Amino acid sequence: MTTHFGDRLTEATLKKEAAVCVGFDPLIQRIPREVSEAFNIEAIRDGDCWNRSNRESLANAILAYGRGVIDAVAPIVPVIKINIAFFEPYCAEGIRAYYQMIRYAQDAGLLVIGDIKRADIGHSTIQYAEAHIGGVEPDPAEGFAMPDAVTVNPYFGYDAIRPFVEAARDRGRGLFVLVQTSNESASEVQGVMLSNQTTLSHHVAGLVQGWASASGLVGESGYSCMGAVVSPRDVEVSRDLREMMPNCIFLVPGFGAQGRTADEVSTCFKDDGTGALVSASRSVIYAYENVRYQGSCGSDGWQSCVAKAAEDLVTSVRTVLTV
Amino acid sequence: MTTHFGDRLTEATLKKEAAVCVGFDPLIQRIPREVSEAFNIEAIRDGDCWNRSNRESLANAILAYGRGVIDAVAPIVPVIKINIAFFEPYCAEGIRAYYQMIRYAQDAGLLVIGDIKRADIGHSTIQYAEAHIGGVEPDPAEGFAMPDAVTVNPYFGYDAIRPFVEAARDRGRGLFVLVQTSNESASEVQGVMLSNQTTLSHHVAGLVQGWASASGLVGESGYSCMGAVVSPRDVEVSRDLREMMPNCIFLVPGFGAQGRTADEVSTCFKDDGTGALVSASRSVIYAYENVRYQGSCGSDGWQSCVAKAAEDLVTSVRTVLTV
Fold first, then answer.
1. Of residues B243, B212, B234, the one with CA closest to residue B225
2. Does the distance separating the beta carbons of B51 and A83 come in below 8 Å?
3. Which of B25, B46, B155 sits opposite A153 (nearest CB)?
4. Residue B60: which CATH number?
5. What is the pLDDT of residues A61-108, one digit of tens each?
6. What are B164-177's pLDDT values in tens digits?
7. How many distinct structural domains can be found in chain B?
8. Does the distance separating the beta carbons of A124 and B86 come in below 8 Å?
9. Host domain of residue A68
10. Between A122-132 and A162-171, two packed helices, what is the crossing angle to 10 degrees?
11. Are A136 and B89 within 8 A, CB to CB?
């Protein structure tokens, strides 16, 4: 695995004509009844304490759900983003399921972004990088794998980025640095006004472009193995950020359940239609809860609702790109 | 467990006359030979891939080392900070060891800070909070426990803090928000100059004090269950931050291997000697590599070197406080 991540990602989105990523943020309370019943988790999930057997059941239910989502969306989208936060409550058993799900997704032909949002001082970040995209690989016989890329937090500056960059460069993997996130309170920190009359997001964008364009990191596609997480909160700002980071692929959260519009999202792409990967999570993975999909897909079960929602997502993003 | 975390921490430091925390950041390459030989890890650690049995051995070696450190320092210091980054490379087996080490430390009478530095949008941070200080407790029969407090990253604003605050308040636990970190490149982001001529660290400090002083969070000691990570990089700035966050206990990294001086550290305390917890990691946990300690403690083995270094750390901090 030495092909460049920016090139692999660009090629994968062009091949499926889908600059789209499905985010997997699985709440145990919302997994499909067919799955929760098979693992008998109703009685466990609200318990006073969990033992290993309880955690094993819950983690296995999430893994089964994840595999079902992968089967449904792999023919439609090129990338899945798996959020480790939703596995950590199940302790060791959750982490095992996280790495197993990554392997299953890669075997299905998907690129995988491990949504880990880690950062620490360099000495400690080396450990995070080894655990997630570098270090000793898991034994393939065990059904685990590391993701193709991860998300990281910029608050520590480059010390917390470098170990991920080195692992990404050496293994053909990638990273996305948080620049502008999709949550309501993001502006409390990211939107703070600097002495040069731009915001902290602009400042971080400048840093990210500098890091991303360093020697050896930019592939034949013109994109670096380092991308940026940019939620388009304001069209003007998104346009600025797009211009400031020409070598970065944007991972664009917030389309779907979080309400970002097509106009907002379109500013994250370059004029040639490359440079962004639009991510939606809840609107796709919980499509079976949506009456819009239940009607048309009911008889085929929850997976066909998920597939239909993924198709609709791809169509929406294609429409954005041709307007 | 409903006693207030700020009160528990203040009481624990006064009782041991030691405003000191030992940080556990265990590199597998540096664990004592007695431990590494017992787990036969020399042959494993540089392998091409690790299977479950390999990871089990490595995680168990780190756990054995951690228990040895706890036995050595528990009579001397009130708090241990366990960095999960150093457990994650061992996948599920590492996470199991992390929670087991927390339990062992609490059984030895230590308060435990889980150094996890997590943050995400609120929807995802709820999961992190449940995994680490809230949610369903692990079955006590299994020898796991959650830490008394965790570290969190402010880049998302309050959305990424709230779930930890709610868990902390309800369970008598705590959190420390990163304000100013100890690494070299921290100033690239945290030191950026704002339009009001202060730095981002000052801005985050103002936010943290606002969050920490909210109704129901401040204990009888006057300290909130929310503290701040403040590495004293500049005496003037530390003094500002100390004044800006009267309700926050400072977790002060960087004393020891990272080179912060007594003068710098002293500004993190209030005049009454409360309000800060000085943390040192490598200078204590690897004391057996230091000729200074090898000479005096050689015959008693590595643990007595660690104990002696912890005593020296406590003495240094007492000296800071009486100057």
1. B212
2. no
3. B155
4. 3.20.20.70
5. 999 999 999 999 999 999 999 999 999 999 999 999 999 999 999 999
6. 999 999 999 999 99
7. 1
8. yes
9. 5-318
10. 30
11. yes
